[in-house]
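Researcher: Please translate sequence to structure tokens.
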Amino acid sequence: MKLTSEEKKDILNFVIKQVTSISNQEYQRRVWIRGEGPEVDDFDETTCHFLHEGGGVLNKYQDFELTTSQYKQLKKLRDEFKVFSDENEWPQLFIDTPEWKKITEMAQEVLQAFNYKKTN
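Model: Translation complete:
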């Protein structure tokens, strides 16, 4: 099934939203750990969405018009995040670790590669 340009844009925006969650420890403390809204999200949900949808984008990155640099940054994050998420599941236990800090910094680099600016 071939995706329309709008569908590809929506999928890529969804993946970037997951990267934004991964990049922001303040968000993680507020939403993942304390369960404060208005967002409803947790580490498991972000992990599933990012690995599934992000993997799909990476598998067809040319169809999503990713640059080589964007592809490499996103793939690096996905690969590191996969290893980390396989070994960790409770944000309360890992949020202040150097390993998680590295993941959040990689996510910030991905956002920069996509020239992402959060809008409210």
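Researcher: Any highlights?
Model: The two ends are 34 Å apart (CA to CA).
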